[in-house]
Amino acid sequence: MTPRTSREIAELVGGRLAGNADLMVTGVASLQEAQPADLSFLGNDRYKGQVTPSAAGVVLVPESFPEPVPAGRAWIFCANPSAAFSKVVMLFAPPTVTYPPGIHPLAAVDPAARIPASAHVGPFAVIEADAVIGERTVIGAHVFIGRETRIGADCLIYPMVAIRERCVVGDRVIIHIGTTIGSDGFGYITGPQGHTKIPQTGIVQLDDDVELGAQVAVDRARFGKTWIKRGAKIDNLVQIAHNVVIGEFSLVIAQVGIAGSTRLGRGVTLAGQAGLAGHIEIGDGAIMMAQSGTDKDIPAKAIMMGSPAVDRKEFARNQFNLHRIGKLADTVKVLQQEVAELKARLAERDNRR
Amino acid sequence: MTPRTSREIAELVGGRLAGNADLMVTGVASLQEAQPADLSFLGNDRYKGQVTPSAAGVVLVPESFPEPVPAGRAWIFCANPSAAFSKVVMLFAPPTVTYPPGIHPLAAVDPAARIPASAHVGPFAVIEADAVIGERTVIGAHVFIGRETRIGADCLIYPMVAIRERCVVGDRVIIHIGTTIGSDGFGYITGPQGHTKIPQTGIVQLDDDVELGAQVAVDRARFGKTWIKRGAKIDNLVQIAHNVVIGEFSLVIAQVGIAGSTRLGRGVTLAGQAGLAGHIEIGDGAIMMAQSGTDKDIPAKAIMMGSPAVDRKEFARNQFNLHRIGKLADTVKVLQQEVAELKARLAERDNRR
Amino acid sequence: MTPRTSREIAELVGGRLAGNADLMVTGVASLQEAQPADLSFLGNDRYKGQVTPSAAGVVLVPESFPEPVPAGRAWIFCANPSAAFSKVVMLFAPPTVTYPPGIHPLAAVDPAARIPASAHVGPFAVIEADAVIGERTVIGAHVFIGRETRIGADCLIYPMVAIRERCVVGDRVIIHIGTTIGSDGFGYITGPQGHTKIPQTGIVQLDDDVELGAQVAVDRARFGKTWIKRGAKIDNLVQIAHNVVIGEFSLVIAQVGIAGSTRLGRGVTLAGQAGLAGHIEIGDGAIMMAQSGTDKDIPAKAIMMGSPAVDRKEFARNQFNLHRIGKLADTVKVLQQEVAELKARLAERDNRR
Predict the structure, then answer these.
(1) HSE value, Cβ hemisphere, 13 Å, CA-based, for B138
(2) A-C interface: how many C-beta pairs under 8 angstroms?
(3) Which of A160, A193, A239 to mutate to test the interface with B (most CBs of B within 10 A)?
(4) Which one in B275, B341, C244, C315 has a CA-CA gap of 20 to 30 Å to C237?
């Protein structure tokens, strides 16, 4: 965490420096909170009015940023200021937490579990019989790994994650604190004596490079598998029901719920608190906006809003229409009066004749 | 997991076989994913177009299914293909995980807790003083059972469930991973100095045959009890606030939220992400559809949609009306022109005279 | 839990007694469930019709309560019946669970952690190197405290809470079961090869007197801090994303989601299941009603409903307008007929001439 000059940082991020090249930077901050020795960035157009007023000595800005550099400060023009900022953040970040290889003496590991010497197993972790852990994978404190579950290499399983029996996890998977994988799907046959549980005998499969946030629930399949494909990223507190399939590189934002057997294509985005009914298909690249919901298939690349969700153009039209009703009612009232007058005038003439 | 013939399976499920009686079945799969040695089923009308194209050798179909059996394959006609399928699933399922009686040496059980020899207590479970566990009940790894809490017989408490002090759990209750029972209700008295906590001195009571999903939160009562009655089934990530009462055999789907002191009748269904305000009553058999919300009492057997929720007929009418505004506005515009013309024609005549 | 007379209770709460002063009270209950030896209260106008029919011997009522006391029973008139009731609840409540000072022998505490003798550390808690715990703070069973995290005095950290590295918690903070603090924010840069993780190097800071419910997720900042200010109260299953700021004394009800970098002012209320997009500001004292959602700044003291949220007056007007469309369409139909008739009459005359 040694200070760096604005020139050194411009070189690091491959940006074009304007203004003070010798400014000493000691940390990073948002535009609003930065002090003169901080570097900040313009990553979202919403904040463009904050760059010049900011106290930040150095600001990473997009190449098109038009405002002149105030005296004594510096702009660094970048193709992607947000990506560049991440590099600078790492310069000043505290060292990443690391996990030494080995099994903590307070872990409960079944003798029939297979754990390589390069893996880390934290205190109070439970690893049951016939579970298999990959090279260099970190199993955090209080984690539960059920029987016959297989986890790949270079995974990072944070504390209090539970993965029940027979699930399959790929390589480089990250699972944040408190996420539960492989609980029974919600399935009953309802009769006169109440609800009889349908056995949930399938598994959950997470492919390579998947990341799951904190406190996500992914239910095991009724049969076959609940499947999150390669590179998909899931935010906190998401519900993924039995037999759901999430396509490669899809993004599922916090508190989304996906009911049973629904399938997402590749590169789908579900924004926060969106909800999908069961047994539907969401096409490649489709976007469900925040708080939207649907029980119908969604075509590829559609952008859907509202609940029940409609195409965003239709949503905008509906909103526009909703707002014009008042005016429309006024217009109709005027028309009623005019028609009444016309009728009166015609009737008057009829009488006059 | 020995293979079975289509004839053997038809006998097992009590169905009527049509087609190939000697087909060897080695597993189960969905219509879309099945291979020729798999059995599948038609449990949802949505998939009826997939039966004949499926590669599945054998398909369990409803008695009314009209399509002829392709050569070499078999249909088994059943009154309830989904229930029949569950029986077949169990034939080919891996053995269920079982839990031997006894207390794991790494559990922390207070000497004043009462645990029968038939119960299982997993590693790192904590059972506090004066807690009582029933016969054959399974307490999973990392479970926390607070002081004086009583749990019935034949319960299955999965890892990382926490049940705080003085709660009461019936027989045959299943609680999935990460669910928390008996945290304080959210109650404050707000004054000029901020929010003062209202003591939450009540308990949670779960009656016989209740099942709670993963990561459900059930708050203890301010006084008296938060109460989930017999046979009710709760899905993942549901919020149940203090003093809520959930009637017998009700179904509460994932991510529903129920605010304080609200009472559900018998056989109520709350679909995914629905929300109920506090201090209201939901009548027997009522249904709140997905993402609906209400702060008003709901009559028995009503089917409610939207937020604020209205009867589903009214919801449909509102949706229909919303879509006709554009056309209505066009009609009004035409009327305006026509009225203007009529006025002009009348005025012209008046002038002519 | 000795019985008290109605007179003793009136003195305790500083209320004015009417009716039977010698009634023996042995417990508390809601109006609906109370027995003759119970005390109840009218804390919500919704229940005013239940006071006289209730079996409760004694009822705490607001000073304006108009109904006469039935024979043998008692009213106690109070400025705040709900606050008074809390005092009586404590009279009859079982003793609060207490936690003796000391570190449980089954906890895993790093020798480099600093824990005062007055603190309690429960079984299977993990406290990593350089963590600092304040005087009299309770660290429950199965809690995880990461490296260099600092927790103040008199905090109550319930079982299965996880607080990752370098976070900061003030004094008198309460965190309920299963809440996770300091997981990575959800941030990626998306390129042709998928989503690349943006390092999340900041922390979470909880100021004095904050209370977090069960199973809340508070993500660490991308840089700087995610910040919950003094006296704010958060209910269960809430999602708080990276770099969010929650102002003093704000109330966030269950299942709310707040996306990254959004800032709440002082005394904001977010009702259940509300959702806020990222990078917006919610002004002091503003209220987002249940299930509402916004991606726009909200002015101070506004009361917002719906998704997308509008001022509650506009929301009411929209609802009113939505319901008048049907009638409006009928009116327009009548007008069409009248105009058609007028045209016909004029045309007829033109022909006659």
Answers:
(1) 17
(2) 182
(3) A239
(4) C315
Q: What span, in angstroms and rounded, lies between the C-alpha atoms of C253 and C269?
A: 8
Can you list the domains of chain A with their CATH numbers? 4-92 (3.40.1390.10), 102-311 (2.160.10.10)
Instruction: List C-alpha distances in Å: C61 to B149, C83, C333.
Output: 34, 11, 55
With an 8 Å Cβ cutoff, are A160 and C144 in contact? Answer: yes
Q: List active site positions of A.
A: 242
Q: How far apart are CA B219 and CA B185, in angstroms?
A: 5
Model confidence pLDDT, tens digit, residues B250-295? 999 999 999 999 999 999 999 999 999 999 999 999 999 999 999 9
Query: In Å, how far is B196's CA from the nearest CA of chain A?
Result: 28
Closest CA to B74 of B6, B157, B169, B123: B6
Give the separation between CA B61 and CA B42, rounded to whole angstroms: 5
Q: Which of B33, B93, B97 sits opposite A199 (nearest CB)?
A: B93
Contacts A–B by Cβ distance under 8 A: 180
Mean pLDDT of chain C: 95
Do residues B273 and B288 lie in contact, with contact meaning Cβ atoms separated by under 8 Å? Answer: no
Q: Do C198 and A124 touch (CB under 8 A)?
A: no
User: Is the pTM for the entire model greater than 0.90?
Assistant: yes
Q: Do B336 and A331 touch (CB under 8 A)?
A: yes
Residue A331 DSSP symbol: H
The backbone region for B142, taken as left when phi is positive above 0, alpha when psi lies in -120 to 50, beta otherwise, is: left
Sheet holding B58-62, edge to edge: B16-19, B74-78, B58-62, B38-41, B27-28
User: CA-nearest residue of chain A to C180?
Assistant: A177
Chain A: partners with 3+ C-beta pairs within 8 Å: B, C
Whole-number CA gyration radius for chain A = 29
Residues of A in contact with B140 (CB under 8 A): 144
pLDDT at A189: 85
CA–CA dist A255, A257 (Å, integer): 6
Q: C30, B342: Cβ pair inside 8 Å?
A: no
User: DSSP letter string over C270-338?
Assistant: E-TT-EE-SS-EE-TT-EEPTT-EESS-B-TT-EEETTTTEEHHHHHHHHHHHHHHHHHHHHHHHHHHH
pLDDT digits (tens, 9 = 90+) for A159-217: 999 999 999 999 999 999 999 999 999 999 887 788 989 889 999 999 999 999 999 99
Which site among C104, C126, C336 would you substitute to test the A interface, given the most A Cβ atoms closer than 10 Å to its Cβ?
Answer: C126
Parallel/antiparallel/unpaired status of strands A38-41 and B174-175: unpaired
ipTM: 0.91
Cis preceding-peptide flag for A66 (omega within 30 of 0): no
Query: Which chain B residues are closer than 8 Å to A237 by Cβ?
Result: 237
Tokens 């394959």 identify what position?
B73
